[in-house]
Amino acid sequence: MEQSVVTGKGKIRSTLKGELYTSSEIFELEKKYIFAESWLFVGYEYEVATPGQYITTKVQDENILITRGKDYVLRAFLNVCRHRGATLCSEPSGKTGVFRCPYHSWSYGLDGSLRGVPKSSDCHEELVNNDTYGLEEVHLQTWHGMIWLNFSENPQPVEQQLDSQIMDRFGELETFARYQIQNLRVAHSKTYDVKANWKIIVENFQECYHCSAIHPELTAALPEFRSGIGTQNQPGLGASFNKDVEAFSISGKGNRPMLKGLLPDDDRLYYGITIVPHVFINLTPDHVITHRIIPINSERSIVICDWLFDPEEMAQPDFEPMDAVELFHRVNEQDFEACQWCQENMTSKAYKNGGILVPIEQHVSKFYDYVLESIGLKVE
């Protein structure tokens, strides 16, 4: 599916073939062997901090309910009543002591156990005292205050998948840990409906070859990006702010202190991180930006972007995040439009055998290898 080509001017590599961005069969393989086998980011631990708090979401075509039990254990369940399959909880978030199905009023405890079955005296004890009829649980772990789910039967520890990628990015774990994402809160969130395959979005984020062409605001803030070298080209690399920029914001202005835990050397630096299969994390001195991709089909993806700040700063009467939000919002819109430019031509015979990676973007080929190996296609 991918190959190296030697030319008179050096070595170039091909991208994935066009069909891998449009085929429903390939998409089903990716769902089965990538997304169903990986830890997936779904929310933040602070959203379910106290017993009875819950959030709902949809992952891998499943409705999901995440709640904190009376024992303070965080659990995830399929949001499906075991009686007739009705969605148990329709609100995006809330707090309760018991989950009651709106259809026939079967009720479940915060630990997922079946607690009540109305008008069933002849079989009530048989149902309630049987673990078989409780809510079906989904593997859940937290990592740096973020909630991750895994649908495989016996998943590896979340750290094995995620820490290894932080090691690849920085060569150590300490830099990432200093940003203390577990102590931050979402000040603003935007959802984007992108008419492009999830892989196009990932490869776009991994390279900066396109930055000088489509990101005037980003390259004004991070002038190194005009060279086409992004922070993910090599381990540990960060990008320095323009000397005239005070903060990572659309105006370049800002006076927020650095996030607690950061060192003086972390000031005026930006780091971009890809965590496969579907998460981007952007580190700046005073806030963190996360992206999570939700693949809808082979040619459409939803991307949720969150801007996280120190809650003490958010509590200040003059706190205003939108200057910072606007910068990466524009970057998002520019990137996603570019992804759509590509997606509409993935069925063209011009792209039947794929495109080209020039040396400045060849690190993206590691992502291609990951995809192909995961779904069982030979890397040529």
What key attributes describe this structure?
single chain, 10 helices, alpha+beta
How would you portray this structure in words?
By secondary structure, the protein is α+β, with helices and mostly antiparallel strands. The chain is 24% helix and 27% strand. The strands form four sheets. The chain has a seven-stranded antiparallel sheet with strand order 3-12-11-6-5-4-7. The chain has a six-stranded antiparallel sheet with strand order 13-18-17-16-15-14, sandwiched between helices. A three-stranded antiparallel sheet has the order 1-2-19, with no helix packed on it. The longest helix is centred in the C-terminal third of the chain and has 22 residues, at 322-343. It is globular and about 75 Å long. Residues 1-10 have low confidence and may be disordered.
Layout of strands and helices, then pairs:
Blueprint (H helix, E strand, L loop, with lengths): L3 E4 L2 E5 L9 H12 L4 E5 L8 E7 L2 E7 L5 E5 L14 E3 L3 E2 L6 E2 L5 E3 L7 H5 L8 E7 L2 E5 L7 H13 L3 H4 L7 E10 L3 H9 L4 H4 L1 H6 L17 E2 L28 E7 L3 E5 L4 E10 L2 E10 L1 H4 L7 H22 L12 E2 L7 H11 L5
Antiparallel strand pairs: 1-2, 2-19, 3-12, 4-5, 4-7, 5-6, 6-11, 8-9, 9-10, 11-12, 13-18, 14-15, 15-16, 16-17, 17-18
